[in-house]
Amino acid sequence: MRNTTHHHHCRHRHLIYYFFISLTIFPLLTTSINLITPTQFLTGNQTVISAGEEFELGFFNPGASNNWYIGIWYKKMESKIVVWVANRDSPLKNSSAILKINSDDGNLVLLDDSGKSIWSSNYSRAKSTVAELLDNGNFVLRLENDKNPENYLWQSFDYPTDTLLPGMKLGWDSKSRLNRYLTSWKSPDDPSSGDFSFKLDINGFPEIYLTRKQRIIYRSGPWNGLRFSGVPEMKSTSPFNFQFAMNRDEVYYSFNLKNESVYSRLLVIHTGILQRLTWIPTSKIWSPFWYAPRDQCDYYRECGVYGICDTNDSPVCNCVKGFEPRNLQAWNLRDGRDGCVRVSKLQCESDGFLKLSNVKLPESGTAFVDPEMGLAECGELCKRNCSCLGYSNSNISSGGAGCVIWAADLYDMRQYAAAEGGGQDFYLRVSAADSGM
């Protein structure tokens, strides 16, 4: 009898001992490094952490998936919010892989358990490179002794996944010849390229489009110096600073936060919603600050050509002055997609202009922009050119400046209530009869 009791105690002691061992082992399961170098690889049980511990990079497998990926997530969040994925369209089957610097050409390369290259940063050839994760979430490949952002050899910010972080540029860069855009995940468990993209059209008067397999769902309206013409939520009272640059070297949109301790990201969700989320530290939640499409008038070309959409009206579609519905039956059944036709023909010389206030400017990829010309001169130019259908300021900040001219059919206009602070003045070409001249 004494024998078994002794045996029982032993086993108990053994369990306690085992428990202590396991406690000390767990924290060691992932170790962190701060750089990937030619001699320091990243393996499945390691992560790279940015200097101020804002972001972390490592191997992860999403949700119920058996696939493994290299991703970047917020270090301080309890749940893993992944903001970038390297090998989104070439998953690993397990986590026994290595992210290393290729000794031949200095590129980052991801090797699976058989040593096959799954993903790489293929940029060019250089010796003594290191890869570093920055506190803004950018994963950069640079020369060992050169921290100048101008000289990065490769950076994750140039290859966005589904998320735009503060400081990231959405749009065109002539140096890298990249037009950077967001593409949704396929599903919450699958980071591979989904159907939805959010991409800056750099032609004409630039604006951003949300598309599903190339088909446009929503457009932001062009940048007018203060905000995108169709996004009244970008009022200056917001916690963000928005930047938009348009010059020979680049055309891009970017944002920063006025308060560095706030987190915010712009995200294209796999269900086809564009969403801006902002982290509220006190309640520990990501609050949807803004999303699109938000209402019926946000849907692309909802009221067809020369139609104007107004959510404060019922039905929401109206024809602009001087036009009538092309298909009255459908229009009365609240399907406005056939749009409107002009009632009185234009004469060119005698035409006038009708000022529409608080409107989302028409689709503007083919519009002509002259940032130097004033509004009066713009109107003169439009009146002389018989194919010009309307004009507006290209920049409405500080009293207005610049000239935009539309010569193609006008689509996707929207009327905002004055209080919403959306849209701007647009001058529509109408016949003399309709302009009341």
Automatic annotation (TrEMBL):
Residues 348-431 form the Apple domain. Coiled coil: none annotated. The keyword Disulfide bond applies. Residues 33-154 form the Bulb-type lectin domain. PROSITE patterns: BULB_LECTIN, PAN. The keyword Cell cycle does not apply. Gene3D superfamilies: Bulb-type lectin domain. Keywords: Disulfide bond, Glycoprotein, Membrane, Signal, Transmembrane, Transmembrane helix. InterPro entries: Bulb-type_lectin_dom, Bulb-type_lectin_dom_sf, Pan_app, S_locus_glycoprot_dom, SLSG/EP1. Pfam families: B_lectin, PAN_2, S_locus_glycop. The chain crosses the membrane at residues 15-36. Involved in sporophytic self-incompatibility system (the inability of flowering plants to achieve self-fertilization). This is Uncharacterized protein. It comes from Penstemon davidsonii.
